[in-house]
Fold these 2 entries.
Entry 1:
Amino acid sequence: MAERLRPPRTQASEPPARPAADEMRLRILRTIRAIPAGQVLGYGEVAVHAGLPGRARLVAKILAGNDDPALPWHRVLRSDGRIALPEGSRGWREQCQRLRSEGVAVQAGRVKRVRAPRDLDQALWGPQS
DNA sequence: GCGCTGACGCGAT
DNA sequence: CATCGCGCCAGCG
């Protein structure tokens, strides 16, 4: 066999998985659809649950271009519990309303967490205690 | 192929 | 506790 024309990628520390664009897209959408009503999740957390750690901005990108009205996009917030959309914008108001209609307490565009900031991973999943 | 952008995250101030 | 700055990562011109 001929030598490898492809220089070896130094596998010092496992290379981050890079699924195809639509694959990532599907995983992210699937994760968001899995968030139960009345609960919320951060962009970064969605990415992690989708098996795509570090792709919080990709999650945002997907949501920005989403057209599916059935997608519970309103259950996705920033890691600090704040709504990501520009305050006062149409989407912002809509998100507040949708969350409240599910029993989520929203104040000043922010969802109250049950735990300390460090436990967001868990807290975001269960704001209802 | 390069550089800029963005519904982000997190530590520092 | 509010802001700022810098890092990350794909998508897109």
Entry 2:
Amino acid sequence: MGKPSDLIQGTLDLLILKTISVEPRHGWAIAKRIQQVTDEQLQVTQGALYPALHRLEQQGWIKAQWKESETGREAKFYTLTRAGAVQLRKELEQWERLSNAVGLVIRLV
Amino acid sequence: MGKPSDLIQGTLDLLILKTISVEPRHGWAIAKRIQQVTDEQLQVTQGALYPALHRLEQQGWIKAQWKESETGREAKFYTLTRAGAVQLRKELEQWERLSNAVGLVIRLV
DNA sequence: CTTCGATACCTAAACAGTTTATACATCATG
DNA sequence: CATGATGTATAAACTGTTTAGGTATCGAAG
């Protein structure tokens, strides 16, 4: 029945960039953090997460590094690059612009 | 270069339903209205518009009827059905929920 | 009288980003 | 020694968009 629709298409990059802008995190932790902050309202599935991380890395917006995680295991920690910070600003601005526009339609039609 | 990204993926159905909930409109007018209300920030291309209208009609959320437009030509006017009104409420709620969740990530990470 | 821009409909191929399903490995707990 | 949590990853299918075409009518301009 219906689709829970866990994400708004195209916002995942923004969510990831923003999440690691605070401090480097590994993929699993990024997903957990997003779910936690949104009180489980956004679900980041692995099938969306990892391709997104690779995409962002290829664009040069994030950088990976294997390190020991909180639990003592090896995990890939991602850091925001300088270009990534620029991109984050762009995506934030774009999100504000477009989501406000949707709000306009909802309110004034 | 780059993508202006005229729409947030998945919001078009909501935008259409909301737009015709005020009064029946034809496809062309729906697109124009959305662009006008958002000060051209949302662009509804025809390649997205018409498939969306047909999708919504198939779902039984909107109903088409040929009538004379403001310019004196025949145009397909779409009306919201009762099921469409229910769907609109659902989509509005979902949008609020998910866009707020994105806001949470942006603000608190 | 013909061309051009606006109005109005439509579709199809390509593309992007999901979902869903699957796989694998380690570690802690029962 | 099985199960659940942690952690990474990929592939097929699906959805919805962009991009690029196509048709037709009308009014205005040249």
